[in-house]
């Protein structure tokens, strides 16, 4: 008991120091900061469906960590500075104003009155951008701002060719809020399912999903619910599913996949044996292994998914190694190369194509990292560099 308690304290202190997210959650500036247009790399329109309450105590947060029994809809415009580095999220410290020339900056928020109004707006954007949508479901200990900035970074760095949509569930944004967050994720399952169905009713041809950490649990539950209704692929519109650092009990995940069935489109699980954030989750859960740091890739792959082992790749989140998929420049570019190819076409490609991409990127930036991909049929090692 003493050893287990000491491990719990050690991992908890690491999380408190490094954090899965920032310590403040202001999204909007107190005052407008104007910079020359030449200092801005791009402006991204992030569409939002959220089960958070609209913030009343601090309107700069826009939405806070309290739960709503209904889904709210919005759009947030975010600028990315020219000085941005791939994999990074440049942010102002504390509650200081963001400088658009140096940091990600939310410049405008549009609230939609109801689901039909939102569906019309997001549908128009999807039609304009090429009939694809990328849904991002954030993880534990995330404020509304964290999800907005992370999706902006992913969309920008991967050069995603469609409409970014954030599904933001009511995380408390506190390291000590694990149980609250788990309950919030459970409460949001129907809302995510409804959001995916809404998107499927637009002109969209492919709905890609990236979920992170505890957001993978929520995503799997929504997909399981779709499968139960007989519409697991959203009428053929479901594209890529990427589960990054899944905070899901391994046995629970297997049962979810049994109910969902073997995927028809690319379905990837990204894990890392050195994920320190998942060590805490495992301890809280009675030392039960989580999918995100599970050591038997072949076991997971037998359920029809591709398992991508990122253990030997470096993370950029202060040693937590919980967000490598998005903060490691090599991995971000690999992800981008996948996402820019529609899922229906990527499903027919040889894994060797991915190996060639990885080698090319590694040589370009002089980085070396082994990425091991285990599919139901073979194991492939990508050496990014050399």
UniProtKB/TrEMBL annotation:
Keywords: Hydrolase. The keyword Transmembrane helix does not apply. InterPro entries: AB_hydrolase_fold (IPR029058), DUF900_hydrolase (IPR010297), UCP033909 (IPR014586). GO terms for molecular function: hydrolase activity. This is Alpha/beta fold hydrolase.
